[in-house]
Amino acid sequence: MIRALALNCTLSPSPAQSSTALLNAQVLEALAARGAATEQVRVVDYDVRPGVRNDMGDGDEWPQLRRKVLDADILVFGTPTWMGHMSSVAQRVLERLDAELSETDDEGRPILAGKVAVTVVVGNEDGAHKITADLYQALVDAGYTVPSQGGVYWNGEAMHTTDYKDLAETPEQVATTTATLARNAVHLAALLRAHPYPAPE
């Protein structure tokens, strides 16, 4: 079974409502409809220390999340937009994933090669395209493969205060994009599982 993990990089600890959690959940629902087992984690609920090692010690809880990341075939990386950029929590997760660049499997492939990543961005200001581009670059560098149309986002009207979680219904374009993302992500994850990238020669 394909396994999908959504990381919610909101700045708001549980049980606060989160627009990122909502759009992540909609992506997971679309993935589950295609047979994936799903889970969502709110990163800020864990003590994830700054650093670029797998375990920074002294109570660092990233190793718990790292195990979930490594067990997942599809990573759904969700972040809000703050001042035109991804959240500081999202940036910290990328920095922790940097440690995986030096990790390889038994055949010498990067440990995250063969895994799929998709992105979720929400906010009330411009920045979604830049954040998506930054996430794509970082996740691909870490070893992930991003499927065609592997990102979904929602940005509200500039200078207004409506959050995604406060909308009366999901915008049609967001729903359509989410369905496409899920379809392509599951297809790619199954393909890479059946036909892994070649090992270094």
UniProtKB/TrEMBL annotation:
Coiled coil: none annotated. Gene3D superfamilies: 3.40.50.360. It comes from the Bacteria. Pfam families: FMN_red. Residues 5-153 form the NADPH-dependent FMN reductase-like domain. One of its GO terms (molecular function) is oxidoreductase activity. This is Flavodoxin. It comes from Microbacterium album.
